[in-house]
From TrEMBL:
This is Uncharacterized protein. It comes from Candidatus Gottesmanbacteria bacterium RIFCSPHIGHO2_02_FULL_39_14. It comes from the Bacteria.
Length: 109
């Protein structure tokens, strides 16, 4: 969620309208790893937590294949990733890289 302290300066209706647009943009912004789908950052997080299995697995696979490593953990915990990892359809080389990471962390697949 965005840090809303940046909007403490809002004093007029025009300021409020501008602030609303910024907040809407931050909430609706499409994650960079989903360039071809119209999901907001919030929707991705919600689907990964409570969505159907097919869509969740698709999104997690896309994150593992296309997101920066440090961004992966903004969407899924290691514990949840370990649980669903065997179900994911990943490119072969990406799957091998993640398997090596899991082994380094003490998990075996």
């Amino acid at each position: 969620m965005p840090d809303l302290r940046a909007f403490d300066h809002v004093k007029t209706v025009d300021d409020a309208v501008a602030a609303d647009y910024v907040i809407i943009f931050l909430i609706m912004k499409r994650p960079y790893f989903l360039w071809d789908y119209n999901f907001s950052d919030l929707e991705v997080k919600k689907i990964i937590k409570r969505g159907d299995k097919f869509t969740r697995n698709f999104l997690v696979s896309r994150i593992l294949e296309s997101a920066k490593f440090e961004d992966v953990w903004k969407y899924i915990t290691l514990e949840n990733l370990v649980i669903i990892f065997p179900e994911l359809k990943l490119k072969k080389e990406i799957k091998q890289i993640w398997k090596k990471a899991f082994q380094a962390w003490g998990y075996n697949f």
